[in-house]
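wait is this the right file?? whatever heres the structure
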């Protein structure tokens, strides 16, 4: 078993591009590189098929708003017969500080509306998640409501840390596409 679909979560539109909630899009954009994500009407998403170390993988950025991400993920997974344990969802994570990235399979949505909708669409929580830390307003000493916090740009020092986490995450994607989940987790979770 290996990853065949990498989903970046975010909100469509230029007003959301640089917001914390779009961290999943940032990773997929970096992963796509010169591969152009094209609008796929049937999935209501930007999508592209690419090869990562010889493994065919779909990249997906739902173009619904975050809380309807499951529409795109479910439609593409059903169409290409991709099972939930072959899906990696990349998303922002309030419970991790900026600069931290964690990989896990399954678990609750932790209040993340994008994950809730994907779980409903796939009929299970047993898909892979790559959690990119953005911090919580309280842990960062901010008096900002969570909904407002995720829809704003990270501060300069937070963005630098998030970028580091993105780089570390990109380094393990090939392992995930080869089915080397333990090795990917060890590499990502080990601090140097």
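ok assuming it is, sequence goes like this
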């Amino acid at each position: 078993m290996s990853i065949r679909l990498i989903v970046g979560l975010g909100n469509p539109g230029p007003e959301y591009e640089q917001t914390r909630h779009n961290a999943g899009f940032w990773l997929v954009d970096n992963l796509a590189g010169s591969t152009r994500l094209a609008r796929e009407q049937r999935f209501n998403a930007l999508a592209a098929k690419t090869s990562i170390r010889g493994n065919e993988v779909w990249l997906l950025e739902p173009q619904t708003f975050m809380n309807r991400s499951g529409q795109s993920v479910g439609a593409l997974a059903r169409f290409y017969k991709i099972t939930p344990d072959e899906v990696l969802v990349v998303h922002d994570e309030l419970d991790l500080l900026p600069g931290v990235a964690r990989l896990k399979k399954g678990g609750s949505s932790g209040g993340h509306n994008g994950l809730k909708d994907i779980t409903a669409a796939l009929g299970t929580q047993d898909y892979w998640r790559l959690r990119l830390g953005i911090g919580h307003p309280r842990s960062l000493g901010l008096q900002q409501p969570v909904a407002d916090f995720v829809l704003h740009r990270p501060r300069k020092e937070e963005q630098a840390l998030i970028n580091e986490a993105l780089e570390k995450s990109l380094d393990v994607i090939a392992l995930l596409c080869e089915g080397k989940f333990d090795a990917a987790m060890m590499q990502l979770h080990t601090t140097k």
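The chain has one domain: 5-189. so i think its the right one actually
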